[in-house]
Amino acid sequence: MTNRTVLAIDIGAESGRAIGVAFDGKRLTINELHRFPNVSVQVHDTIHWDILRLWHDVQDGIAKATSQHHIDSIGLDTWAVDFGLLDRAGHLIGNPVHYRDHRTDGMVEYVLEQVPRAEVFAQTGIQFMQLNTLYQLASMVKADHPALKEAAHFLTVPDLLYYWLTGVRILEYTNATTTQCFNVQTGAWATDLLNRLHIPTHIFGEVVNPGQILGTMGDIPVVVAPHHDTGSAVVGVPAQTEHFAYISSGTWSLLGMELPAPVINEAALRANVTNEGGYGKTVRFLKNIMGLWLIQQSKRVWDAEGYEHSYGELAELAKQADPFVSLVDPDDSTFLAPGDMPARIRDFCQRKGQPIPASIGALSRCIFESLALKYRYVLDLEIALTGRRVEAVHIVGGGSQNALLCQMAANAMGRPVLAGPVEATALGNAISQLIALGELASVHEGRRLISDSFPLTIYQPQDSEVWETAYQRFCGLL
């Protein structure tokens, strides 16, 4: 009988977790061993990640895990696009800057003045978003930033943490593809694009595929999991058929399909979709949707005003509010930066000639309904671009716990929603480790194992005519 315990360290935009995943040969069980906040820090007008605090918590998580269990391997994943620069001695040059920092304002336009949009997409296949690594680096070139001149190595945030864990510098494939600096067609860095933007190419090192042992921390093997949390989450989707779509639901909602090859054509360019790398050289064909960021930022404002509610209470208040009074486009650029989200939502409604949400419940319902309708919009778009049949949609991650949003998503998309597991990212991370250790043969076997180990909640679509009417109105706002 196999008995293995692997440690999956998963760091998202709001918090991180060190999760022990045990495998007894038939089932998986999970045990959260350490949870820690991920709090950004503003210095003057720049928002940074507190990377040394995160490194401290990674070490704490490993220490707690090894004090309680025999750990067979370690894997780590984080959010995408942000990075650290190292000097020739391998030392970090400054704290990584947050993707929501204002330094990328106007940078998409700046880049496209030098390289046409179609050429950028043809090389990278990536959705145009100002937070992408490409625009962060271009902003440093434009500002003549001294750190870029000093840099010898570029490492994304999870690559940096792996370097500190093992002393080995690599760039992992699923995360490298998110940067919009990687040529998805050739499988190498987009040096032509980078050269035209005067971004130094010598800082981009070797790209490795997930699923291999990189090195050790002490005597524990460190496995290259999919470094991008969505890359790990997709491995953790418990799908038993190829006719599925997924939503990795957290601060962002990433809605997509798993494809064997990228979709790079004029229609995909117009739709502004993305082709990110997946485990086993699959393609995560998806689109980023603003996600639970809107309710997270709203809650922060309400808490500060003394109206403290849990996320469950906010969902209950939304459930009691009148339906379809006001709707917003969750991906409107006014919602990207941190700040007073309720005020921005009210402003959007006023600009579009809609009633202004007057209560916490009304505004929360506005957010959830708008997210569900944006899911429908993006799913329809992706089906049209790929011609694929979608029989069901899997929602994994924190948003799978929100029963109201899951039911709304089923209603809006007109398909069953299978919600769970919550810790799909950690489980996908763990599956990649178990494959590297020789305990599992494939992702398909891992997904079946997850399905057998964790119950799913199924939401069937309801009120189709009402939601269709709301959808037509929503499309008019985009």
Describe the structure.
By secondary structure, the protein is an alpha+beta fold. The protein has two domains: 4-223, 2-Layer Sandwich (Nucleotidyltransferase, domain 5); 237-420 and 441-478, 2-Layer Sandwich (Nucleotidyltransferase, domain 5). It contains 18 helices and 21 strands. It has helices at 51-68, 107-114, 117-124, 133-142, 146-150, 157-166, 173-176, 191-196, 229-235, 266-271, 293-304, 311-320, 341-351, 360-386, 403-413, 424-436, 443-453, 464-475, and strands at residues 4-11, 15-23, 28-37, 41-43, 46-48, 73-77, 83-86, 153-156, 171-172, 182-183, 188-189, 207-208, 213-217, 220-223, 244-249, 253-259, 274-277, 283-289, 392-396, 417-419, 457-459. The chain has a seven-stranded mixed beta sheet, with helices on both faces. It has a four-stranded mixed beta sheet with strand order 3-2-1-6, with helices on both faces. α9 (229-235) packs across α16 and α14 crosses α18 (464-475).
